Amino acid sequence: MRGTRRTGDGIMTADKNTGNRPGFFTRFTSRTAKVLGHAWVFAAAVAILVVWACTGPLLGFSNTWQLVINTGTTIVTFLMVFIIQNTQNRDSAALHLKLDAIMHELQVTNSKLYDAEDEGEDELERQRKHIEAQSDEQPAGEDQPVH
User: Fold this and answer.
1) Three-class secondary structure assignment of the chain
2) CB neighbours of residue 66 within 10 Å
3) What is the pTM for the complete model shown?
4) Which residue of 17, 86, 130, 132 has the lowest C-beta tally within 10 Å?
5) Would you list the domain boundaries of the chain?
């Protein structure tokens, strides 16, 4: 089996040296999002803000003092937008893949459902109402496949 290897005790383990390794940016954003999601990072950010605020009177609330926090927060926010968007895109793609696999197993044949993420809001609402109406018409306890 590709991507796995058998250890000396017969247990199959994942082989990390496969051609399916994610690219650098994906690995970077995954690790960064994981690290930055911890409570200690939030606490560190609050501590930085407290230190910055406490230095205000010492520095006379100067323009440079204000510029430091403005520049720092702008740069962090700008970079985090891309990290968060990349993470969300991958999560969304993985979710769609899993839902498509479930729909395939349930033999759902409605192509509009498979491509729902590509539809506009009006079409999504129309499809939602259509599916709701189908489920309202269906007698209780009777499962019918969605086609």
Assistant:
1) CCCEEECCCCCEEECCCCCCCCCHHHHHHHHHHHHHCCHHHHHHHHHHHHHHHHHHHHCCCCHHHHHHHHHHHHHHHHHHHHHHHHHHHHHHHHHHHHHHHHHHHCCCCCHHHHCHHHCCHHHHHHHHHHHHHHHHHCCCCCCCCCC
2) 13
3) 0.65
4) 17
5) 22-87
